[in-house]
Amino acid sequence: MPQVKYIVYNSNLCKDTIDRTLYIANKPFVYFAVKPDCEDVNFPFTNASTAGAGSILSYNWDFGNGRRSTLRDENIVYPDSGTFPVRLIVTNTFGCRDTFKQPLRVYPRAIAKFKYSPYDPQMLKPVTFTNLSGIDTKWTWDFGDGYYDITENPTHSYNMYGTYTVTLIADNDYGCADTTSLNLRAKSIPLYWFPNAFTPANTEGLNDQFGLFSPLTVTDYRLMIFNRYGEIIFESNDQTKLWDGRINNELVMGGVYIYDATFKNPENEIQRYSGNVTLVR
After folding, report:
1. Through-space distance between the first and last CA atoms of the chain, rounded to whole angstroms
2. Which end of the chain is less packed: N or C, by CB atoms within 10 Å?
3. How far apart are CA 40 and CA 106, in angstroms?
4. Is residue 61 pLDDT above 60, yes or no?
5. Does position 172 have pLDDT exceeding 60, yes or no?
6. b/e code 147-177 from CB counts within 10 Å (16+ = b)
7. Contact 273, 246 (CB under 8 A)
8. What is the pLDDT of residues 212-231, one digit of tens each?
9. The pTM is what?
10. Domain ranges of the chain
11. What is the CATH number of domain 32-106?
């Protein structure tokens, strides 16, 4: 350590002397690490600074977005994209300090948005999905029924009625994705059939019963069958209970019978079907 001597003379050439040992402290070494990332996520700032001599007395951060801190390590969320000049000043117990600056790149996030048409889609009919996202270059669609697509504006149809949650993940070249979802109600179509003729006891297991045939599940079902005199000869409140052409286990005569059926479709709308059916013996 260097020795410093200080001598003072007055006008009479009298002097005084003082000796001191001068201690020169090492200044701190400041460094931090942070990786570029997307807006609206946590940026962890890893502080790797050392004191040089003594210990670190203070940390002074300036994150370039108006926020400051005196903590050793920080986690900062940048709500906006851009390049931000980050600065850290470290001071040790000897009053020595060091400064480190580093520009931080915050990437823009995609903004996911879409619409579909028609507004009231039906099962088995195409639905067009239109991408309305921003800052996007890649897309992943989940149609909610086990099918996916990666084109920008896909078309899809639903094999069954119901409510589906459609999800779009819009991504960009920075890997900053955004997700949005919409519920879509695919309405049923009138897939209802009543045979105009049937052959009970003639072709067992094949066209030997009469009633509603449909892949759809209906509610409030009621089927009535009348003879030529307007008398009810069969009635059912169960979609799966069909008429086998019998009354009291006896096969009726061949001929034309009248039926009337009412039920509610999956959208709870009342449906009515009536007409003639020929029983062939």
Report:
1. 123
2. N
3. 9
4. yes
5. yes
6. eebeebebebebeebeebebbbbbbbebebb
7. no
8. 999 999 999 999 999 989 99
9. 0.75
10. 32-106, 114-186, 197-279
11. 2.60.40.10
